[in-house]
């Protein structure tokens, strides 16, 4: 559950089963961004399936 009370700017709290966890929004996306191996992206971009090509555009590799 999300707790809307913000104690400090850029922070939010989520109630986990083990207790409340305070998160900081600064750099949150960068720290939690999944990165695919370049070889996997290039492999997906070499397909002839339009759906897959839409998921892996050329300018991302």
What does this structure look like?
With 61 residues, the protein is of the alpha+beta class. The chain has one domain (2-60). It is built from 3 helices and 3 strands. It has helices at 28-31, 38-45, 50-55; strands at residues 2-3, 11-16, 19-24. Strands 1-2-3 form a 3-stranded antiparallel β-sheet, with no helix packed on it.
Give a short overview:
This protein has 61 residues and is of the alpha+beta class. It has one domain.
Helix content: 25-40%
What number is the mean pLDDT?
Answer: 82
Shape category: elongated
When the domains are counted, the total is 1
InterPro entries: Myosin_head_motor_dom-like, P-loop_NTPase
Pfam family, one: Myosin_head
GO molecular function, one term: actin filament binding
Keywords: Actin-binding, ATP-binding, Motor protein, Myosin, Nucleotide-binding
Task: Give descriptors for this structure.
alpha+beta; 3 helices; 61 residues; 23% strand; 3 strands; three-stranded antiparallel beta sheet
Task: Please give the structural blueprint.
Blueprint: E1 2-3, E2 11-16, E3 19-24, H1 28-31, H2 38-45, H3 50-55
Family: Belongs to the TRAFAC class myosin-kinesin ATPase superfamily. Myosin family.
Protein name: Myosin motor domain-containing protein
GO molecular function: actin filament binding; ATP binding; microfilament motor activity
């Amino acid at each position: 559950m999300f707790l809307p009370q913000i104690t400090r700017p850029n922070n939010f709290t989520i109630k986990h089963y083990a207790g409340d966890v305070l998160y900081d929004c600064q750099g949150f996306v960068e720290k939690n961004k999944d990165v695919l191996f370049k070889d996997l992206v290039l492999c997906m971009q070499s397909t002839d399936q339009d759906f897959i090509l839409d998921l892996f555009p050329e300018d991302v590799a």
